[in-house]
Design brief:
alpha/beta, eight-stranded mixed beta sheet, two-stranded parallel ribbon, 12 helices
């Protein structure tokens, strides 16, 4: 009798093994972490298109700032709508989305951009999306990293891209939230925490600035005292009538010998984001990092969408082999299985 039970167990085990072999390799859970970078984030569209074309389908998507917008568009099935809108942008209609205001906590109110998002997402909730999604934001005062995983999708996106000084912070569940790039520019950690076995990260700020170094000895320029740089010549006659407007433009945009407010803000944020990204990726590296070379594209160059998406597509193409190798490690294909190869894509 005991011998019969052993044979029965062996038979069931062989049958189960045969069924597993017929079912094919296990499909690993793939997470996509999309970084912030304003207009450069349109590269994420090209990246996603290339991944899908190669059979690599993300199950989990997390994003910061523009990465959250692109990620939400993919997760909700509205990537085509976003791409069409991006390709239609021209310098003149970009300005139409910037509702400048000087009496709030940001230069741009953001209501016009929110209207564009509402047209795509409506009142959709994050928990209604067909796959796991999170938008990364930063809480004002505390600096807490906030993962927005439920609630109104449009509100989460507005919080994730609320660049300090540019957009007003968003109030969500009694927390004032700002751009997630302040704490987690490329949210690999969030993708892993949501269950991703393989994390593909996209960093669109890789070559924005140099690697940085230390200037050990630096001082003032003797021939150009600070007084001569900071004090403009006094205006006389009709020129005084236009001096105020010229002063505002000079302060905001800068001049040949001095950076303006906009330049200082953008460069400061780029430096900060670069340093934080390097630290976060060193501590929690992705399985594959995609880095489009879009550093020469400005924050507000949204009208260059075609060029930016092409950069993203080329960068993703270069990474396809590495992604397939990662999938093979997690879910290897048996070499003796008829009709299978050594690499597998979902």
């Amino acid at each position: 009798m005991l011998e019969g039970l052993i044979r029965f167990g062996q038979g069931n085990g062989a049958a189960a093994a045969g069924a597993d072999k017929q079912a094919g390799p296990r499909r690993p859970t793939i997470g996509l972490a999309l970084g912030g970078g304003a207009a450069r984030g349109f590269a994420h569209i090209g990246i996603i298109r290339t991944l899908l074309a190669n059979g690599i389908v993300p199950d989990i998507v997390v994003g910061t700032s523009i990465g959250a917008v692109v990620g939400a568009s993919y997760a909700s099935g509205h990537l085509d709508t976003l791409e069409e809108w991006a390709r239609s942008l021209q310098p003149r209609n970009i300005l139409s989305y910037l509702d400048i205001r000087l009496n709030g906590s940001g230069l741009i109110g953001g209501s016009k951009l929110a209207t564009q998002l509402e047209a795509s997402f409506g009142k959709m909730l994050i928990e209604e999306l067909p796959l796991k999604f999170a938008a990364i934001a930063t809480e004002v005062k505390t600096g807490h990293e906030i993962w927005l995983t439920h609630g109104r999708l449009v509100d989460a996106l507005r919080a994730s891209y609320a660049l300090p000084g540019i957009f007003e912070p968003m109030l969500i569940a009694e927390r004032w939230l700002l751009d997630g790039a302040l704490v987690n520019p490329v949210p690999v950690s969030a993708a892993r925490a949501l269950g991703a076995e393989i994390v593909i990260a996209a960093n669109v700020s890789t070559d924005v600035i140099g690697h940085g170094t230390t200037i050990a000895a630096h001082g003032t320029t003797p021939d150009l005292p600070h007084a001569e740089l900071d004090m403009p010549a006094p205006k006389r006659g009709f020129s005084r009538l236009f001096s105020a407007e010229k002063t505002v433009k000079r302060e905001f945009f800068g001049s040949a010998g001095r950076p303006g407010i906009s330049t200082v803000m953008v460069d400061a944020f780029n430096i900060m984001q670069d340093r934080i990204t390097r630290a976060r990726l060193a501590g929690d590296p992705p399985d594959v990092l995609i880095s489009p070379r879009v550093g020469r594209i400005g924050w507000f160059d949204f009208h260059r969408a075609d060029e930016i998406m092409a950069h993203g597509a080329r960068a993703a193409e270069r990474a396809i082999e590495s992604i397939q190798e990662s999938i093979q490690i997690i879910a290897p294909v048996a070499s003796d299985t008829p009709g299978t190869s050594q690499t597998s894509t979902p």
